[in-house]
Design goal:
Elements (H helix, E strand, L loop, with lengths): L16 H7 L5 H10 L5 E5 L5 H10 L13 E5 L3 H13 L6 E4 L2 E2 L4 E8 L2 E6 L14 E8 L1 H7 L10 E7 L4 H7 L1 H4 L5 E5 L3 H15 L2
Helix pairs in contact: 2-3, 6-8
Length: 224
Amino acid sequence: MKSNVTYNINTHGHSELTSSQIISQNCEDAEIRYLRDILSEGDHVLDIGGNIGLHTVNFGEEIAPGNFPSGRPTAGKMAAFEPMSKNYNLLTQNIKKYNLEQNVLAVNAAVSDSSKKSQYIINPGNMGDCRGHVFDNEVGDYNRFEEETVDQLTLDDFFKNQNSIGIEWSKIKLIKMDTQGSEISILKEQVIVLKNLLMVLFLWNTALIGCIIMIKILVGFLDF
C-alpha cells in the first residue's frame, strides 16, 4: 500500500514557489511516496537540504510513527540540515508541529566538503533555491537573490561534534540530498564512509550532467 504524503506544514505562503506547491499538495509527490515506502520504524536518516521540512516530516512519520513517547527502543532518528535562516525557522516549527523533536535534529548549517563560514544566496521567489554559487546564466540577474552568511560543516564534523541524538552510520537507511549542485563535493568527501554502508541515496540535481557525474562517482568510488 502506497504511503500518503503529509502536506499540512507551515510555509512561506502562496507567493513562494515551493510553498505554493506544498499548499496545492503537488510537490514531489511520487518521490516522497517512494521514499516513505522504503523507510521503516527505527531507520536512521540524513535529510541534507531540509528546506522547510516537507520531506523531514514525511520521513519522520515513517521512522518514528505514532508520536510515541521518547525512549521507545525502536525509535528512528534523523538529522535535517538547512543553512538558510528563514527556511530553518519553518523547519523547526514543522518538526515541533508533528512532535518529532525527540527523534529529529534540525541543524542550521549546510553540509559541504569543509567546515567554515560561507556566503550563500537565496531566491526569495523560490526558497528551495539556495546555494553558495551563481550559475553562468544568472550573472546578469544577480540582484534577484538575497545573501546570507551561513555555517558549512562536513558530515565528519557533525558526527563528532553535533550529533546530540545519537544517529548511527550503521543504521542509516536513507541519505536524501537536495543541495543545488553541491551533491558531488559532499559525496567525494564521504566516499570512504559511504563504502561501508548499505543505504539508499536519493539525489536531486537540476542539471542532467550533474546527475550523470554523480552516477559515475557512485559506480567508480562505491563499486556499485
